User: Fold this.
Amino acid sequence: MNAEDAAHYLLPIAEPLVSWYESHARILPWREDPTPYQVWISEIMLQQTRIEAVKPYYERFLSELPDVADLAAVEDDRLMKLW
Assistant:
């Protein structure tokens, strides 16, 4: 199936899906003001456990390592404790 055919089939369900998401989406810290770094960190963490378990770790991690430069500069021991 080419992109044009896919768009033809998916277009009718796009609006109801977006509408549902806007009214039912959970409020999550990585959705509030997402940056690629924040989304990346959340995706990695969410591969390992449940959303409710990730929230406090995610917030603590980002408070100490708010961007890629901080992540690159942190000592391994500190990184492992934060993770």
User: Anything to note?
Assistant: The radius of gyration is 17 Å. The helical segments are 3-24, 29-32, 36-46, 51-64, 68-73, 76-82.
